């Protein structure tokens, strides 16, 4: 089989000289002198260590002395990484270590076996060859010596293949986490922790898991290693819809890294395909079953001319269709003296390993990375693309942690695609903000670049290259800004450092900060500070004789090291150390930073106490921290918290101190957080856990100004909630409660340095969410401190400070008066809801405690300015007070009522769509409190309700039977309550007769004097402003209650306000007019005669008038008079008043309406017009000369509208 591997980008097949510089040696096997070839590469000091360890004795076949501590795992070398085999198969392979596996092997790996449990060490040749294979290109080895013994060359080739499965897993699946990828249920089984496995759809479909399955299924065959080239075939088993396929795989490697891969499956993905994984794992797990050959050039050198010719001819014959054209072309060039191929010394050998100039890094398909990112971005956040991009970012972090140079390379590719996203230009042109999820991806991009440029061991030229690229991206117009919307005028992250080159830059002249600005600034940072180096490199760095107590002292009073640097920058260093695989160094620096923060906290408290009297007298303060740590782009508090929490996270067996090794053994154990033994620089009784909690509380309690822009403000809220969510996962014990008490007391006493201090700036970030967490945590242990903290946090000064002087009686206006600053507080509604949640939590906890309830009520009334939130609190208090399983809490009910009354006052003169709901709820609440509460709200109704609400909802509900039954009222109490309701009704009717008169009449029905008073109010208001609709409604009510004459009077008053034009034949008042005429007709001729002139004056609609006329001629007026007495009489004559007047008005209305209609009539309305004339003729014929009048009317129409020939023809057909 021939596998042709294309060269890796930037890498070609290395040319080797055609002449051979050594001869195969015959004779006895090599002794220690063989390994001496490699001494210059591994160092003489290391060689001496190997001598002492007994490796050379093993080389000579002698047994080493018993070791106190095992230096190698069974089947592995002492220097092997997880999954690495110490021995190899094939000619010249070293001996395999022997010994048991399973748990004993794991213990042996940790050096925990009892004394006397020894195993044979590796040979010196293997140790030396392994070291050389890891660090040196093979060309450098060849150039160093004229002749290299074949066993040495063979062992270098053997050890040059990767020995750890972790990197294979990293390049064939999502984030691998910390567990051993080869272990059952380990990283391979959870290839995407924290939700990544869900995004990967089915974990078993990941290339790494599929590769393991192929390997375990015996699908790997024909494995051959020729020099630095591995090939083989992998058979994909037949599936339901797909036949069995055989894939040819070729892998090139160098210095324990796979440098190129090819597979005939045609995989198009970022990750290695399952076939590459299967072949790689086969070589790692079964090296003794892989046939190993030296580079092909070595084999060719051993052939004579005839053998070489036979070799070439057989090769061409076996693959003539593929290689014959290429073979002929090469032959022609070689035979040509002046050809380019003859100008180059030697010939390429793809199996000869790397040259000196080759970059040593793992194979990464750059094109696929770019295509995948471009695809995810084009999906705009749909189909899980945002989650996929986050997985790619996690992959970058994983590479950085493994100190893989592809991390920066992959991030560069991702960033280029982000910068090329066409939506950036579109959003900039339209002035549209990017989506929140997309914005968070940019944040992660900037944070990753920050980690990369802060790599403590990167080369200067590498950092310079990154800086150049970052500046290029930063200069692009569409590069997103750091705060999402607005330029940030905060100082840059290096301004606190003497090593920062931009420390004195004028912030007013600085351009907008982009997502790359902090990474660009971080390029000015370095790690050469001797104090910093001592901090991160040693647990013993102390100075107990140091007595400098200044603000920037290097050590504290304990002699422990401090690190004074711009806090987000210092924490960025911690994140960089963690990201690049230096967890212990990161932990040491994190502890120094936290100790510095605690010392600064104490110093700030002392400063405030010295100035407290003066500051409290002024009552104002300034922001001491322009840059908040929670919500900061670099997330400093989150970084410190995570670093410390990782340090106190242990498995079930508590193998702390061996975490770097135990994480690779066996299955992943459940994790929990414990108080681990105290660190060198912690107080007695403290642990990493207490330190993590304390730094979180310090950051959350920091007073900081609210940033500009919607996104920046939302990020403050989001990060605060995320940090609190992490704190809530920790079980609080007595040790942690001491920390809570300590920080709560400090925050209350620390003045302007604390968000819970006595005086804070009006634009500082509110503490409601944080205080709620503190309150619930402290309440079971220290209720007084819990309430004191929560009550202090209730304030929302940004609203109070904008209220006009003297207008505090209307706090509901404040919500609309946003601070006079640009930009606004975009998250104000969320902040107010958190304030409401804090108050609700306190109300719930204070149930049954009168003093605390009163205090909480006062705080709510003083600090909450949103009527909807106060109403919610009132409802919450009501629900808590009236739980089904307990008696009502009267104190809490009163609190609920007080809050409800405040809502009524706040919303009395404003529009609120929930107003009716609020009024009804208040009456319900007052009913639960008692009759005196109902009486009180009715007596003070004018400060709480509108007249309409007071009569239609409040008084009506109070007078209902259900309320009487609910309160168990006696007759005296009922009458007293009814009297209050009638008084309210009359007052409302006087103030708003239009809307309250009917309700007042209804409420006063049972009291004659009150009813007459209400009726008189109606009469007085009828001529001043009541509409005909309101008067007709009251008139109908009067008729229904048995007052027809009063109804008639009100109806006549209503008619004076009415005006119906000729075309309003569907007007809603028509029924009222017909009812009024019917009422008048029933009362008698005089009443009818009195109302008809009003009808004629008010109604111009012909059809309505004809309807009234027809009804009046059907019965005798007064047939059913007052008191049910029947009147005898004749039908009224149409020739006499009042019906003659009505008839003439009706005919006149028909004539006017006809002319009006004909002015703008269209053919589609002709038939309707003919029917209208038919009704008009019926009315005309009611007069004694009606026939003549109608004929003259029709003739007149024919003459005037003779131009409308079709219409006039229809008129002639119907009317002659």
UniProtKB/TrEMBL annotation:
Print the keywords alphabetically. Answer: Metal-binding, Zinc, Zinc-finger
Question: Out of the domains of life, which is the source?
Answer: Eukaryota
> Cellular component GO terms, alphabetically?
Cul2-RING ubiquitin ligase complex
Q: Where is this region: Disordered?
A: 1-24
SWIM-type domain segment(s)? 247-284
Composition bias of kind Basic residues appears in: 8-24
Q: Which InterPro entries match?
A: Znf_SWIM, ZSWIM4-8_C
Does the record carry Phosphoprotein as a key word?
no
GO molecular function terms attached to this record: zinc ion binding
**Protein name, UniProt field:** Zinc finger SWIM-type containing 6
Q: What is the lineage of its organism?
A: Eukaryota, Metazoa, Chordata, Craniata, Vertebrata
């Amino acid at each position: 089989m021939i596998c042709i591997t294309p060269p890796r980008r930037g890498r070609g097949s290395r040319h080797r000289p055609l002449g051979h510089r050594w001869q195969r040696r015959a004779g006895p096997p090599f002794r220690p002198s063989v390994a001496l070839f490699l001494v210059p590469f591994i160092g003489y000091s290391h060689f001496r260590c190997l001598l002492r360890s007994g490796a050379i004795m093993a080389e000579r076949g002698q047994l080493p002395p018993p070791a106190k501590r095992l230096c190698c795992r069974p089947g592995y070398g002492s220097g092997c990484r997880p999954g690495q085999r110490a021995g190899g198969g094939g000619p010249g392979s070293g001996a395999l270590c022997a010994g048991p596996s399973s748990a004993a092997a794991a213990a042996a790996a940790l050096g925990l076996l009892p004394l006397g449990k020894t195993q044979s060490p590796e040979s010196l040749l293997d140790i030396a060859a392994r070291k050389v294979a890891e660090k040196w290109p093979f060309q450098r080895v060849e150039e160093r010596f004229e002749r290299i013994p074949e066993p040495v060359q063979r062992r270098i080739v053997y050890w040059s293949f990767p020995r750890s499965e972790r990197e294979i897993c990293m390049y064939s699946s999502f984030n691998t986490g910390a567990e051993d990828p080869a272990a059952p249920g380990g990283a391979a089984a959870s290839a995407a922790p924290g939700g990544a496995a869900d995004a990967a759809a089915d974990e078993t479909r990941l290339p790494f898991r599929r590769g393991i399955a192929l390997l375990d299924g015996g699908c790997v065959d024909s494995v051959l290693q020729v020099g630095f080239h591995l090939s083989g075939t992998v058979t994909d088993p037949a599936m339901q819809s797909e036949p069995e396929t055989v894939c040819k795989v070729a892998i090139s490697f160098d210095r324990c890294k796979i440098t190129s891969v090819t597979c005939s499956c045609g995989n198009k993905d970022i990750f290695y395909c399952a076939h590459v994984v299967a072949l790689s794992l086969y070589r790692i797990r079964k090296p003794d079953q892989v046939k190993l050959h030296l580079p092909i050039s070595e084999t060719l050198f051993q052939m004579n001319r005839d053998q070489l010719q036979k070799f070439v001819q057989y090769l061409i014959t076996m693959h003539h269709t593929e290689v014959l054209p290429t073979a002929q072309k090469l032959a022609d060039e070689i035979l040509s003296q002046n050809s380019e191929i003859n100008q180059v010394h030697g010939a390429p050998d793809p199996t000869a390993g790397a040259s000196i100039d080759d970059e040593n890094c793992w194979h990464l398909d750059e094109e696929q990375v770019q295509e995948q990112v471009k695809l995810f971005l084009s999906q705009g956040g749909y189909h899980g693309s945002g989650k996929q991009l986050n997985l790619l970012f996690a992959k970058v972090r994983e590479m950085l942690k493994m100190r893989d140079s592809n991390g920066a390379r992959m991030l560069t590719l991702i960033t280029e695609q982000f910068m090329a996203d066409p939506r950036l230009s579109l959003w900039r042109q339209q002035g549209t903000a990017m989506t929140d999820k997309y914005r968070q991806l940019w944040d992660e991009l900037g944070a990753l670049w920050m980690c990369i440029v802060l790599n403590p061991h990167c080369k200067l030229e590498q950092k310079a290259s990154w800086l150049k690229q970052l500046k290029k991206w930063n200069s692009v117009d569409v590069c997103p800004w750091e705060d999402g919307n607005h330029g940030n005028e905060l100082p840059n992250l290096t301004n606190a450092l003497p090593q920062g080159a931009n420390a004195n830059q004028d912030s007013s002249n600085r351009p907008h900060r982009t997502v790359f600005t902090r990474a660009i600034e971080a390029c000015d940072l370095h790690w050469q500070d001797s104090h910093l180096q001592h901090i991160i490199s040693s647990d013993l760095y102390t100075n107990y004789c140091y007595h400098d107590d200044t603000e920037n002292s290097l050590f504290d009073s304990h002699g422990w090291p401090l690190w004074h640097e711009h806090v987000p920058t210092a924490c960025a260093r911690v994140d960089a150390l963690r990201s690049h695989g230096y967890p212990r160094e990161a932990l040491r620096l994190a502890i120094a930073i936290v100790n510095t923060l605690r010392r600064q906290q104490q110093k700030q408290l002392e400063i405030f106490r010295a100035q407290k009297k003066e500051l409290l007298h002024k009552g104002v303060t300034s922001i001491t921290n322009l840059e908040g740590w929670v919500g900061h782009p670099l997330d400093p508090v989150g970084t410190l918290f995570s670093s410390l929490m990782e340090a106190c996270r242990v498995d079930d067996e508590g193998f702390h101190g061996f975490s770097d090794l135990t994480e690779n053994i066996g299955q992943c154990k459940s994790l929990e957080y414990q108080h681990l033994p105290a660190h060198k620089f912690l107080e007695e009784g403290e642990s990493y856990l207490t330190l993590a909690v304390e730094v979180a509380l310090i950051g959350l309690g920091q007073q900081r100004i609210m940033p500009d822009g919607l996104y920046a403000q939302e990020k403050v809220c989001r990060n605060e909630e995320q940090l609190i969510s992490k704190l809530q996962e920790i079980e609080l014990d007595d040790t942690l409660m001491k920390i809570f008490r300590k920080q709560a007391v400090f925050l209350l006493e620390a003045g302007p340095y604390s968000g819970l201090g006595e005086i804070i700036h009006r634009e500082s970030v509110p503490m409601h969410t944080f205080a709620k967490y503190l309150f619930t945590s402290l309440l079971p242990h220290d209720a007084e401190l819990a309430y004191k903290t929560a009550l202090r946090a209730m304030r929302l000064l940004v609203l109070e400070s904008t209220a006009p002087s003297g207008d505090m009686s209307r706090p509901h206006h404040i919500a609309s008066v946003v601070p006079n600053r640009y930009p606004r507080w975009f998250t104000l509604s969320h902040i107010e809801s958190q304030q409401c949640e804090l108050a609700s939590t306190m109300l719930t906890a204070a149930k049954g405690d009168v003093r605390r309830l009163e205090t909480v009520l006062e705080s709510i009334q003083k600090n909450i300015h949103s009527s909807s939130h106060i109403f919610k609190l009132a409802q919450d208090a009501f629900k808590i007070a009236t739980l089904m399983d307990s008696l009502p809490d009267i104190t809490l009910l009163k609190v609920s009522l007080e809050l409800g009354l405040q809502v009524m006052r706040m919303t009395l003169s404003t529009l609120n769509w929930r107003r009716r709901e609020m009024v009804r709820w208040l009456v319900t609440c007052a009913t639960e409190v008692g009759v005196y509460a109902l009486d009180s709200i009715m007596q003070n109704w004018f400060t709480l309700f509108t007249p309409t609400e007071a009569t239609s909802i409040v008084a009506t509900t109070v007078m209902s039977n259900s309320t009487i039954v609910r309160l168990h009222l006696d007759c005296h109490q009922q009458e007293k309550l009814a009297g209050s309701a009638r008084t309210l009704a009359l007052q409302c009717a006087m103030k708003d007769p239009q809307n309250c008169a009917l309700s007042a009449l209804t409420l006063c029905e049972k009291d004659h004097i009150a009813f007459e008073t209400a009726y008189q109010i109606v009469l007085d208001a009828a001529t001043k402003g009541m509409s005909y609709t309101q008067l007709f409604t009251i008139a109908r009510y009067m008729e229904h209650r048995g007052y027809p004459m009063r109804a008639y009077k009100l109806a006549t008053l209503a008619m004076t306000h009415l005006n119906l034009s000729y075309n309003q034949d569907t007007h809603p008042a028509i029924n009222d007019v017909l009812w009024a005429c019917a009422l008048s007709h029933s009362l008698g001729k005089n009443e009818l005669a009195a109302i008809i002139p009003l009808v004629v004056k008010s109604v111009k609609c012909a059809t309505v008038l004809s309807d009234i006329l027809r009804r009046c001629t059907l019965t005798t007026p007064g047939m059913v008079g007052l008191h049910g007495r029947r009147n005898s009489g004749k039908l009224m004559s149409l020739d006499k008043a009042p019906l003659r007047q009505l008839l003439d008005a009706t005919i006149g209305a028909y004539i006017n309406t006809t002319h009006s209609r004909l002015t703008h009539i269209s053919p589609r309305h002709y038939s309707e017009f003919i029917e209208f004339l038919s009704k008009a003729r019926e009315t005309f014929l009611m007069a004694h000369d009606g026939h003549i009048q109608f004929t003259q009317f029709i003739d007149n129409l024919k003459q005037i509208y003779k131009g409308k020939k079709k219409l006039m023809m229809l008129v002639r057909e119907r009317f002659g």
